[in-house]
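Problem statement: downstream parser choked on a complex file, so we are re-checking the raw output for the zinc ion run. The parser issue turned out to be on our end (a line-ending mismatch), but while we're here, posting the original submission so the record is complete.
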Amino acid sequence: MAGKFKWLILAMMLVLSGCRFVDNAKPLVLSTTGMIHDAVCAIAGDRVSAKVLMGPGVDPHLYRMRAGDIALFQKSTIIFYNGLNLEAQLGRALSGLSTKKTVRAISNGIPRDRLIMAEDHEDNPDPHIWFDIDLWREAVQTVTQTLSETMPEHADTFRKNAATYDQLLRELDTWVAHQIATIPAENRVLITAHDAFSYLEKRYGITVVGLQGMNTLSETSPADITRVTSIILNRSIPTIYVESSVPVRQIEAVQAAVRAKGKDVAIGPPLFTDAMGAPGTPEGTYVGMITTTIRHIVEGLTP
Ligand SMILES: [Zn+2]
């Protein structure tokens, strides 16, 4: 496993080096989230100028257009977004642009039966598809196809790079499954501020309990705190988690409620859920964001 892990780290560095420069002479490919941008960098490399709209720690559910975004949208040749209502506040702007340029939701190519629907909402799929790495591989295919259609002269390069990236994602998928399986079964419960991990739960077999719904727009109620506190007390869960793009106070309220009952629960290091870390840090790539998050989960839940 150690050898494979080194290989992953090496691959991450290669991915990073593919997207270091912004070159105004090349077609601009804009991605809403860092996770999509990472795929664009890996596949298109220096054939395009790639930019990301939402930086480290930015919550995509809440992101609103800023001054300068319109100009960036207009300059772009391709705009990639996640879709499934992740970028809830950008819906109108993106559909307005789609008549003028190539605007693609990378979730479009995913078969509907592989999406997780919100409770009681058949038409409301969970947007956090990047936590099922096998599903994310499908989404990345839309990036490759769109780049190839738009720049057919580079299609061979895109195909080759995409194959290398896909191999990396397959390794990552296997690594995550192994890591989750090392957590003792009775502790395999992930408690976080918002429900970003349903795809992780389904693919890798860990029970996920969210304090909020699957978007960060909803408020946490006292009933939510009571519900989550009783799960922690009943199962003696050692660690609960905050997220890099969600305020910490709600999860602190849960910790206080557990302490009021005479028990204790730790708050783990922030998990990277809806945004990657800063460029140049280990969490500044998709693979790094996933490996760091999984390592924090395994360390916190393993006695
Ligand atoms: Zn989210």
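For whoever reads this later: The two ends are 21 Å apart (CA to CA).
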